Amino acid sequence: MKTASGAAVRAVAAEIVDAVAGGGQSLDAAIDRNEARVPAGDRSLLRMLSYETLRHHWQLQDWIGQLLSKPLRRRDRVINALLAIGLCQIALLRIPDHAVVSETVEAARRLRRPGLTGLINACLRRFVRENLAAKAPSTDESRWNHPDWFIRRISKDWPDDWQAMLNANMERAPMWLRANRGRNPAPDYLLRLQQNNIVAELLDGIPDALRLAEPLPVDKLPGFAVGDVSVQDAAAQIAANWLLPEDGGRVLDACAAPGGKSGHLLETGGPKLSLVCVDSDAARCRGISENLARIGMDATIIVADASNPEEWWDGKAFDAILLDAPCSASGVIRRHPDIKLLRRESDLARLVGIQTELLEALWPLLTPGGTLLYATCSVFSAENDEVTVKFQADHGDAIENDVLPNNNIRDLMRRKACGYQILPGTAGMDGFYYAALQKVKVS
């Protein structure tokens, strides 16, 4: 790689990392705004540098603290991000030291900080010379690469599993597919992949799921463009199989965007299913339409706040409701390492309030005998079984239906006071929580 090209990629990556760590932007948004600034062939490197630097944020900042005699000025904050990217390449990505030093120094010039090139050169060379990467982390945050509050919460909720969960969060998530069972069941699609020299495997208990040995662009997947297959984590695929009534009926997908679970509900339920999708974000609702159109499915899509049914509900009860509630997303950190920097412990109380409000608002819309499947991609008890246990205590017509969709997923899930939890990394899946609440007639 030429220095000019490498320096340009690293400069843009530094701006992306700074936008997240210093500016509070989401990583996806920061990449979307900036990746067009580098050639298409360099974008995979741009994403790798951005993701890995944020994934190891606390460890890298620990090293920077040892290398700098005083913090950089606020207006030079982007150079902190550039230093982190340089250290990440040397210590974690095993990119040759000389290439990293020269391209990082040149990247500082591209960031209009020529006066700091000497400092960057000295820091990176000292890091290599003193082998700082071999020194033990100085804090729990730098050891586990998670904020203190997160470590404290997860160790309390999962005293026997928290270390494995934090380690799992540091891994790159695999690419999972969902075969469209109406067109080609997962075993058949596996054969199609093999015929195209694509290595994948099935997962017992989740009938439509396939795990790729290596991620691929979607345009390399046979039949993706015409809806034969979709990209969806296996843990998220549990929802449709668990929720759907055997005889179809009228189903609500609340907080439905971007529509992955909506599509799976339609593929699984077939023509007997009538699906209503509600989400408050108009742009994301357009994404639902596009995703359903690709798989050849249709649903009633409503732009509205699901917690205010009086604004959108037609008065006809639903046989089943999927509430994929807004949450901390603490179970999908492998895919979104920026969550560790952007989420605050104080957010949990606000999120629990939203989750409770949604449950309260949607429960009257469910027909007696119907099921509301409460789901989050969180691993925190405060957002999961504590919410559903309290809801049951407050509603005499709400009982848990703890019958799993099949016995093969039992070993993949942990039983909670109410519901079941999948821990991140289990069989390569994301962290997810499910609780099936059934509405009974009260005499």
User: Distance N terminus to C terminus?
Assistant: 74 Å
What assembly state would you assign to the polypeptide chains in this entry? Answer: single chain
Rg result = 24 Å
Count of all domains: 3
Mean pLDDT: 95
> What share of the residues does DSSP label as strand, in percent?
5-15%
CATH topology of the largest domain: Rossmann fold
SSE succession: HHHHHHHHHHEHEEEHEHEHEEHHEHEEEE
**Largest β sheet strand count, sense and barrel closure:** 9 strands, mixed
Based on Cα principal axes, name the global outline. Answer: globular
CATH class of the largest domain: Alpha Beta
Report the count of strand segments: 13
Name of the CATH architecture of the largest domain: 3-Layer(aba) Sandwich
Helix content: 40-55%
The CATH superfamily title of the largest domain: Vaccinia Virus protein VP39
Low-pLDDT runs: none
Which structural class do the helices and strands define?
Answer: alpha/beta
Protein described:
There is one protein chain. By secondary structure, the chain is α/β, with parallel strands linked by helices. It is globular, with a radius of gyration of 24 Å. The chain is 42% helix and 15% strand. The strands form 2 sheets. Strands 5, 6, 7, 8, 9, 10, 11, 12 and 13 form a 9-stranded mixed beta sheet that branches. The chain has a 4-stranded antiparallel beta sheet with strand order 2-3-1-4, covered by helices on one side. Helix 1 packs across helix 5. The longest helix is centred in the N-terminal third of the chain and has 19 residues. The chain contains 17 helices and 13 strands. The protein has 3 domains: 134 residues, NusB-like (N-utilizing Substance Protein B Homolog, Chain A); 56 residues, Sun protein, domain 3 (Alpha-Beta Plaits), CATH 3.30.70.1170; 203 residues, Rossmann fold, CATH 3.40.50.150.
